[in-house]
């Protein structure tokens, strides 16, 4: 291992000033680069120029979260907690070359956690150095405003708050502008930028694809478990009621609305938590997501695909297990056929036989007990999104389903986020990916596909069987111990399971 | 990499019940084992027995901290932040064998952060797996109460609070009892337990050595940068004034003192922060450390060495740079002799020549500019402690000084905590330890010495020149690119520097 960080190197000159990072085993790393500042509820503004050299040697503050962290599921997803502050508009860069002629593909990671939580470093698997090295790409990850700070729409209270309902998205647009302006100095190609993200990160990419201000700032998109039916989007009326209730609770009036900019964050959260239950019981959506309107046009599946987005190639996929958190019976592989069928019937009742028959066609060789956790919440909207996109544009899209079993609890099908270490080429630092003879190969397949796609718009590579463009055949790359493209293989299964398990427990997104 | 965690393995039966961990590359790991519970300000009590199997797959909550985290100095010391809760009495175990006949030496890590902050997982270098494997030892790390929750002495308010001024130490004693009772089931030898800790962790070990309740619970001790002049210890009078001011601020009276047990932690902290400045200006110590008395006898250098402690072999050491945070001039190795002397003279004035002459004798070949950060705050009390201990007992002690330069800012002498990755055999996960041809060798030297000491009470090993027992010669192992035992080599230098730099800026401890 070789570390260098001298008084003169590595230093990069950005448009606003010089920054110093460090070099680890040949990968230049810059952590906590401030890309903008923002007054609460206002648009971000680019950073003021500075003299001298600023250190970029520590990840920046993450956006304030509305609930306290709880250590849980650390083996499924190892987390990194980090100090929070409204001063949170920071990004990180990893690159193998600091030379503006290098023009490597740029991959910008947009983190998950819905639109309300997470950070660019929330998961250990988000470290970008290994991906930068393996894929010879420049990796960027970015913090931006979340939850009540990112999506409280105060537009009714004054023109200066016009875009407050999309502030978190405006931060991402500002970050992408920073990338366009500065990434060449880090060896990246500003004309070849891929945004990739998982869960809420994919959701934010869906939003960026419907945000005209983002046109020209990215050129390809990977949505990992990011297309989902979010339930009722915020409606202007319902959201306005919520805002009114919050400011009322805080004793702030409409003609004194700027007081909301200085209320301590904790008080803002308390006020929200006090008014939310009653609103929720009225059927009002009190969740956080961008307000559709002039800035963000709304879900493409409802309002149509934004023009510029039609020429953006996409990868869209999901996991075989996702958020289905049902406990699997122990030693599922030692159960006999009848015991397996009984377990499935206990969940799916009369539909069990039909579902099992479909499952055996869709997944020959797989244990039918895994039906207990088969995802439909992501797979259905993914297909819906891709079908509608197919009708709107000829620009290629590629679909995947990540179906690996992991060595915990006698074999657990891939859950929400289980693919991230593979995409980041980080399986060696995530213990649960310790599957000898399997993880390394699959990581090579996923990561090569991702970086080839970033390079050329086509994920095909020697490591994988041919990955056909998504078409009427609903071609889907199934990532597993053996990877394979399947066509029209699970639509009926997914419909049957979704219909038979309306009450199956599941995490909220 | 191989990970296993099935429904049946690895499971260990503790006195209170079964727990399941995981196995990574042959190292069994149990995270977040609850070893006790405690009502606020009361002694810890051992855990209630349970049925079935509890998972120990995620680190437990860390103790509540009185100030918010700030990302800083991440290259010098990579941190892990983690959720906080008063429900924090958790420990972690790493072992290569789960077999009660294995009886491997046990090393219990006690974290730093004074008596007021930190956690068993605060630093990335605290991961115990690599040490367990390299040294074939069982590693334990432990959370315990800190700051106002660990050391507020309410004994004046009722017998049930008798030991509240030492609650954090009582937690450690309880954890060591848990180790004594349970560690054999994890492959450890309950009759061969070494406590090791850095900074406040070493300070807590000093305290444990003066705590009769800890007798028989550990057998060897390593104090890394842990012996320091803490300034005024809490005095019963001053501390009592502080307690009175806090409860007064909270509107709690002496006859209603139990209300203090349910005040939200944040309010407790706010009350302390409001009353502390005035008390401090009266000269009252408002810091956190255990109240000397019946439970903790007080600093051995003042009250004499506790009987049982006299038979505990020790390693005691410090760093060449420690908390001296002066910036070094850039390119210090390219400066000519005169420029170097000028830099030293700017700090030490008239004493500079004498100091430089002493330095050249003590550290031939080392850049005199490093005098700007030469530690005296730890080295002096280390020598004082060892001298007094030598007068009190023949049980061997070994002294070290860690003097490596690191590749940041054109070469920075080892700071407070820089040795931790070496002791834990974790230099490969701490970027700044990336010094090819140096770090790996030095890590082997330090880690072999530490684990040999844990095994036998003697750190000597083939990797190092002979490490003499500390005696009148003040024999000190200097860990550096070349390791060497030096005798009576720096006492005069340390005195001169301490005298000439009373106002040199330094972190508070």
Brief characterization of the structure:
Two copies of one chain form a homodimer. Chain A is 28% helix and 16% strand.
Which whole number gives the mean pLDDT of chain A?
95
User: Uncertain spans of chain A, ≥5 residues at pLDDT below 50?
Assistant: none
CATH topology-level fold name of the largest domain in chain A: Rossmann fold
If you compute it from the alpha carbons, what radius of gyration of chain A comes out, rounded to the nearest whole angstrom? 23 Å
Quaternary organization: homodimer
Q: What is the overall number of helices of chain A?
A: 13
Count of DSSP strands of chain A = 19
Question: How many independent structural domains of chain A?
Answer: 3
Name of the CATH homologous superfamily of the largest domain in chain A:
Alpha/Beta hydrolase fold, catalytic domain
- Separation of the first and last Cα atoms of chain A: 40 Å
What is the second-level CATH architecture of the largest domain in chain A? 3-Layer(aba) Sandwich
Largest interface: A-B, 45 and 45 residues
Q: How would you sum up the major sheet of chain A?
A: 12 strands, mixed
Can you identify the CATH class of the largest domain in chain A? Alpha Beta
Q: Report the principal-axis shape of chain A.
A: globular
Structural class of chain A: alpha/beta
Helix content class of chain A: 25-40%
Residues in β-strands, percent of chain A: 15-25%
């Amino acid at each position: 291992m070789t570390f260098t960080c001298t008084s003169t190197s590595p230093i990069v000159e950005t448009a606003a000033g010089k920054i110093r990072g460090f070099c680890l085993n040949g990968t230049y790393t810059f952590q906590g680069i401030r890309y903008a500042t923002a007054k609460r509820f206002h648009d971000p503004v680019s950073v003021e120029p500075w003299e001298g050299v600023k250190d970029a040697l520590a990840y920046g503050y993450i956006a304030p979260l509305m609930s306290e962290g709880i250590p849980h599921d650390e083996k499924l997803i190892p987390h990194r907690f980090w100090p929070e502050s409204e001063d949170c508009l920071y990004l990180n860069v990893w690159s193998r070359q600091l030379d503006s002629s290098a023009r490597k593909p740029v991959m910008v990671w947009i983190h998950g956690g819905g639109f309300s939580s997470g950070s660019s470093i929330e998961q250990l698997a988000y470290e970008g150095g290994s991906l930068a090295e393996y894929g010879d790409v420049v990796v960027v990850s970015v913090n931006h405003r979340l939850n009540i700070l990112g999506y409280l729409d105060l537009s009714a209270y004054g023109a200066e708050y016009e875009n407050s309902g999309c502030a978190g998205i405006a931060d991402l647009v500002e970050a992408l502008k920073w990338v366009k302006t500065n990434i060449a100095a880090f060896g990246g190609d500003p004309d070849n930028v891929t945004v990739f993200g998982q869960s809420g990160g994919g959701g934010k990419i869906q939003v960026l694809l419907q945000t005209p201000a983002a046109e020209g700032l990215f050129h390809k998109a990977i949505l990992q478990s990011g297309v989902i039916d979010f339930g009722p989007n915020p409606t202007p009326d319902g959201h306005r009621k919520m805002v009114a209730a919050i400011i009322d609770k805080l004793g702030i009036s409409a003609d004194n609305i700027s007081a909301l900019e200085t209320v301590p964050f904790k008080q803002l959260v308390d006020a929200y938590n006090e008014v939310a239950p009653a609103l929720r019981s009225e059927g009002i959506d009190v969740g956080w997501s961008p307000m559709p309107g002039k800035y963000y046009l709304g879900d493409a599946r409802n309002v149509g695909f934004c023009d510029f987005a039609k020429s953006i190639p996409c990868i869209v996929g999901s996991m075989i297990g996702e958020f289905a958190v049902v406990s699997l019976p122990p030693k599922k592989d030692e159960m006999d056929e009848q015991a397996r069928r009984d377990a499935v019937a206990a969940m799916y009742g009369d539909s069990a036989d039909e579902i099992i028959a479909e499952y055996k066609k869709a997944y020959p060789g797989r244990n039918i007990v895994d039906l207990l956790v088969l995802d439909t919440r992501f797979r259905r909207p993914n297909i819906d999104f891709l079908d509608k996109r197919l009708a709107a544009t000829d620009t290629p899209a590629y679909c995947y389903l990540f179906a690996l079993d992991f060595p915990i609890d006698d074999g657990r099908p891939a859950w929400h986020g289980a693919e991230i270490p593979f995409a980041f080429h980080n399986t060696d630092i995530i213990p649960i990916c310790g599957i000898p003879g399997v993880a390394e190969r699959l990581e090579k397949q996923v990561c090569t596909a991702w970086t080839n796609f970033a390079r050329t718009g086509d994920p095909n590579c020697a490591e994988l069987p041919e990955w056909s463009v998504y078409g009427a055949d609903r071609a889907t790359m199934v990532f597993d111990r053996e990877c394979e493209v399947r066509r029209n293989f699970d639509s009926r299964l997914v419909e049957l399971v979704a219909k038979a398990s309306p009450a199956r427990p599941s995490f909220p997104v």
